[in-house]
Amino acid sequence: MTLILGLESSCDETAAAIIKDGTHVLSNVVASQYDLHERYQGVVPEIASRAHLENIMPVIEESLGQAGIHLNDLDAIAVGNRPGLIGSLIVGVAAAKALSWSLQKPLIGIDHVQAHLYAASLCDKDANASPIDMSPDKPALGLVVSGGHTTLYLMNSPHELKPIGRTIDDAVGEAYDKAAVILKLGYPGGPKLDKLAKTGNPTAHDLPRSMLKPGSLDFSFSGLKTALLYAVRGKPIGRGKSATFKRDATDLSEQQIADLAASFQAAAIDAVIRKLKRAVNQLRKNNINPQALIIGGGVSANSHLRERAADFAKRYSLSLHLPDLTYTQDNAAMIAGLAHTYFIQNQFDNLSLPAIATTKCI
Ligand code: KG4
Ligand code: ZN
To answer: Residue 231 above 80 pLDDT?
Structure first.
């Protein structure tokens, strides 16, 4: 039996988790900072790193307590060391190094984006999980949809991710958050917009689905965001910073806001699904036959994306791997789980492990 402690502090969640044998979650503790950042409608880096400092030790202690194990039972310490806010990452990385050094246990640095694609492999401690079957002959399509990333990968293993498409402007989660600000739904915007969209008419507004150049597998969401802004406020009067608008969301009825949310959600998710279709068609033309579709990141919690992805995977004969809702948002279970795949190959880091702002999966 292998027990790995994972730590995650890349943005506004301080998290620790204990994973048994790579897939079984013995504990998964997340201290969220939503209340600290809510009034700013976004994450304030200095506030985030200070809160990580306060939360990291209690969160680690709670993860050990819930799993019913002691520090000495651990086989390795894993930490998300990239990408993220440097001041936030440093807190998790320093804690992981201190534990690794004092306990004399291996240290494993993990890329947070790559870990989102491992989240679908996690299960409860009593469940029966089998790893996602992939190899160079049986590749998988991996889609990360989060607040910072929207990237499509061709995967031969959890370690081999070849990016084949990425956003050229906003990430889809970022577009959701900005749309929620335009609609005045509050923070965090994505889940609120998803919920409200269920009560609206998705065909009320015909918002753009950007496909970019023929054959492109890249994504773009800034045009959709601007189209929503104009649908809510009317065309701007004047240009640049001095532009004014006729109205804002407070002048619209609840039903009008719900219709706008539903139309935005329909367009954003449709754009993602259309790119998945384009990707599979292109790959199959080139005799590359993806067998599975793996989705991860905060937006993989989106109810409409989950429905459309299920439908798409069925039509294209792909096995679909979505994380349980608990593991869609930032968490340390995915960090410790992915670390197990490095642990069994004896791939460890040393105490010079850096915190890095960017992902290695580009
Ligand atoms: O993966 P994540 O927790 O953090 C990053 O690594 O960025 O993703 C957070 C993003 C936020 O933009 C949030 O609004 C979005 O995921 N999100 C959603 C939903 N739940 C979270 N977006 C749309 N629908 C949801 N249900
Ligand atoms: Zn994330």
So the answer is: yes
Measured in Å, residue 298 CA sits from the centre of ligand 2 at 6
| Residues 108 and 221 both lie in one domain | no
Secondary structure of 102-141 in HEC code, one letter for each residue: HHCCCEEEEEHHHHHCCHHHCEECCCCCCCCCCCCCCCEE
Q: Is the CB of 80 under 6 A from ligand 1?
A: no
- The 10s digit of each residue's pLDDT in 135-167 is 999 999 999 999 999 999 999 999 999 999 999
Q: Which ligand is nearest to the CA of 192?
A: 1
Find the 12 Cα to ligand 2 centroid distance in Å: 10
| 129 found inside a domain | no
**What is the domain count for the chain?**
2
Residue with tokens 């160079």: 136
On the CB side of 22, how many CA atoms lie within 13 Å of its CA? 15
Q: How far is CA 308 from the centre of its chain?
A: 18
Give the model confidence (pLDDT) of 76-113 as tens digits: 999 999 999 999 999 999 999 999 999 999 999 999 99
Determine the structural domain holding residue 281 and report its residue range. 140-322
Predicted local confidence at residue 40, as pLDDT = 77
Cβ of 292 closer than 6 Å to ligand 1, yes or no, is no
Q: Indicate if 90 and 232 belong to the same structural domain.
A: no
The response to whether residue 221 sits with its C-beta less than 6 Å from ligand 1 reads no
Q: Is residue 64 part of a domain?
A: yes
